[in-house]
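I am writing to request your help with a piece of structural work I have in hand. I set the record out below, with my sincere thanks for your time.
___
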Amino acid sequence: AGVPPMVVDAFTSLIPSMVAIGTYWIIAQVAQVNVLQIINDGFQPLVSAGKGPVPQFFAFFLDRLLWFTGIHGSNVVQSVMRPVWIQMFTENAEALQLGLAIPNLLTEEWCNYFIRISVLPICVLAATSKVKRYKTLGKMALPASIFNIAEPIMFGLPLILNPILFFPWVFGWSFLWIWTYLFTAIIPILPPVITQVAWTIPCPISAYLATGGSWIAALFSLGNYFIIGLIFLPFFKVLEKQAIKEEALITEGGAN
C-alpha cells in the first residue's frame, strides 16, 4: 500500500511483456518453431511490394498531407513503412559488404537527405520579409532550421492549416520527390545512399557523407533547397501581401 502508484504501474506493465516473452521462449525451445521468422515470412510480400516507387511516393505524399492537417505525418507513415525501410537498408548493407550493386535506391535515408530537407528556404523567405512578425520569426527559426528542426516555422508562420501554403507544402515537395527520383533511377546521376547519418546534420552534408563522399550528391541536395524555395516564393508573397493589408487595417483602426 505504501508503494507510489507510478512505481506500481511500471512493474504492472512488465507482466504482459513477460508473458509474451515466456510464451515465445516455450514455443521456440519446446516446439522448435521460429515465430519471428514465420511473422517475417508472412509479411514479406507486403514488404517487397512497398519497395517500389509508387508506394514510396504515396507514403511521402501522405506524410506531407498529414503534416498540413496538424498530424505528425512522419510518425504516422513510419509506423507502417518502417519494416519496409529496415528491410531495404539491410539488403543494401549486405550488398555493400559483398561488393554488389545497391539494390534499393528509394530508401528512407535517400528521402531524408535529398527530399525531406530542412524548411530553411522558408525561414529565409520569412527572415527577408517586409512583414515585421514574419521577419522576426524567420530570424529566430533560421538557426534551428539549418539543423532540420522545423517546428518553429511549422507552427509559427504557420505552415500547418495555412490554405495559401497548401499547394507548395504538399505538391511542391511532391515535385521534389519526382525530380530527385528522375536523377536517381531514370537518369542515374546520384549515387546510392549507403549509410545513415544523424538527422540533425544539414542535408547537403548528410548527402555527402551517406553516399560515401559524393560532391554531386551534396550539390544536388543543396540545389533542392533552392528549388523548394523558388516553389514557395510566389505563395509566400501572397501571404505577405495579405499580412501587409492586415497590418494597414490595424494601423488605421488604431489611428481612428
